[in-house]
Amino acid sequence: MGMTDPIADYLTRLRNGSNARHKFVDVPASRMKAEVSKILLDAGYIKGVKYIDDDKQGFLRIYVKYDKEMHSAINGLKRISKPSLRVYVPANSIPRVLGGYGMAILSTSQGLLPDSECRKRKIGGEVVCEVW
Description:
alpha+beta; Ribosomal Protein S8, Chain: A, domain 1; Dna Ligase, domain 1; 3-stranded antiparallel β-sheet; 3 helices; 8 strands
């Protein structure tokens, strides 16, 4: 049976891996997961991303970022828009995660973008997830 929500699976693997203090987490690759990983990398929530080809789908190896006390840079991940309930917002209603300390990732007509970039470009879209 196929997976109904691969992005939720991606977020769960990342959350579990960081809570278990793993050095890296492997997830099945897709373009959307690669884009979300790139946004998390640019925002400083993860240390690195590497695509590994396995003659099938391939997978992404995501290197989790920790401080000296082994506390993960990611405190929380939450899937907002689900296959059963899509959440779309206009540009003037983009959510502020923890008053600006976190970030929301939106799927827009211009690709996946962090909430700050969406506000700057004045475009709305589907709220994929929140990270803090």
